[in-house]
Amino acid sequence: MAGCSIELFCFKEKNLIIITEINVEMMQTTGLVIAGLAGGSGKSVVSVGLTAALARQGKRVVPFKKGPDYIDAGWLKLAAGANCYNLDPYLMDEEVMRRSFLTHATGADRVIVEGNRGLYDGVNPQGGYSTAELALSLNMPVLLVVNCTKTTRTVAAMVLGCQKLDERVDIRGVVLNQIGTERHRLIVTQAVETYTGLPVLGAVPRMKRDIFPMRHLGVTPHQEYEGSMAAMDYLAATMTEHLDVPRIEGIMAAIPVLSPIPKKLTQEPTGLRIGVLMDSSFQFYYAENLEALERLGAELIMINALTASALPVLDGLYIGGGFPETNARQLAANISFRQSVKQAAEAGLPIYAECGGLIYLGESIVMDNQEYPLTGIFPIRFGMAQKPQAHGYSVFEVAGANPFYRQGTEVKGHEFRYSTILDWQGRPEELVLQMTRGQGFMAGRDGLTMNNVLALYTHVHAYGTPQWAAGFMARCRDRQERR
What is the 3-state secondary structure (H, E, C) of the chain? Predict the structure, then answer.
């Protein structure tokens, strides 16, 4: 196997240190990108199902999800039994994204990258930041999933259009979804293979059961779905029966990975205990964010806000997004825990809260004419709307003093919320983050502060915003030393 040598660098205390020289070879790790013609094409069903089928064969599968997505990533993680990582060409530099891909793919047998939206859908007419652009960046082939509902030969035209629109994109096979009958399958298969020259590598029939139930924010997270493991078993069996899995593995491309695997570049444990609220209310965490804290020496303490009686002894607390609204009754009922979070904030515990975490730090949330008390750290009453109040990529500039970010820093992130602000007596200029793209909390601003607390609607990714983990851990370390 051909290989080459590279030098691996590590920054420590601003001094550049060459750690080691390692060999990069073309290993047996192979993978592909699974894309669709549009949202709802079935690429999530195929991606999760294929991942589960390969994992049940004893293969080590590392899944990736394109874009700012927590829910699909959670299902992929469940299917693989391993972390799913996000690849986002908008939030992170291309070289950083590629390095993340190669590093996390190291040691895998198979790599599955699930795209988002349609293959060529991006933020502009040129398809910027699209799944096709990601496939080109990673030098990965594409398996195209097509929803065949109420159509036959036209499927071939759509696939042919995807081939011709950008011939650099390496589409190697097609999976048909929502097939009604055997005759339907035969006609579509013959049309696609005749006019495009691409092999049809599977035909998924219309399913009688809804594998991924939908609700107000899309697919139900697996953490809140009682039948999640049964769904995995069903999907794995369905994909094994209706996909030609060996042929799909045959069209996968070899991925250059680090060999031997370098020792994990992690600081020595610092003794910093960082709490992470992790339950069915708070579940939106990038694996990369948690790993970034660990690389800086944090010991992560997972805490269930629904059942824990109080916070343990901590040096910092990270509250991600999620669905506090669907668990509002249980969160409100856990009075002792809510009080312990408020007391910790008042005592100066560093707390970083995103979206659902921001809501939890408010006074209450009102739903169906019922008001549920929350921690009361910020005097805000939240409500819920029927339509999204913010959705998409965002950018903010740090305009005011806060515990974690230097003023003047520009940060890319994303928003997705249905919550509304029913009552807040503060003024927009008190918010420390100026939105240059996106909605934020109010009047084009985001970021509420109190002591060592920063709460915001914007989600950030550690690879796109390395200042996040560094700033958070620095304040936690300062708190530890003072204590």
Answer: CCEEEEEEEEEECCEEEEEEEEEEEEEEEEEEEEEECCCCCCHHHHHHHHHHHHHHCCCCEEEEEECCCCHHHHHHHHHHCCCCEEECCCCCCHHHHHHHHHHHHCCCCEEEEEEEEECCCCCCCCCCCCHHHHHHHHCCCEEEEEECCCCCCHHHHHHHHHHHHCCCCCEEEEEEEEECCHHHHHHHHHHHHHHHCCCEEEEEECCCCCCCCEECCEECCHHHCCCHHHHHHHHHHHHHHHECHHHHHHHCEEEEEEECCCCCCCCCCCCEEEEEECCCCEEECCHHHHHHHHHCCEEEEEECCCCCCCCCCCCEEEECEECHHHHHHHHHHCHHHHHHHHHHHHCCCCEEEECHHHHHCCCEEEECCEEEECCCCCCEEEEECCCCCEEEEEEEEECCCCCCCCCCCEEEEEEEECEEEEEECCCHHHCCEEEEECCCCECCEECEEECCEEEECCECCCCCCHHHHHHHHHHHHHHHHHC
Which is catalytic among the residues 84, 148, 162, 355?
Answer: 355
Same domain, yes or no, for 208 and 299? no
Residues 220 and 77 in one domain: yes
Domain extent, residue 242, equals 3-259
Active-site residue, 148 included: no
Q: Are residues 30 and 178 in the same domain?
A: yes
Q: Are residues 212 and 289 in the same domain?
A: no
For residues 117 and 225, membership in a common domain is answered with yes
Does residue 54 sit in the same domain as residue 166? yes
Averaged in consecutive runs of 10 residues, what is the pLDDT profile of the chain (483 residues)? 36 31 57 95 94 97 95 94 96 94 95 96 91 97 97 98 97 97 98 98 88 58 72 92 98 80 54 95 96 96 98 98 94 98 98 98 96 98 93 96 97 95 96 97 97 98 97 95 82
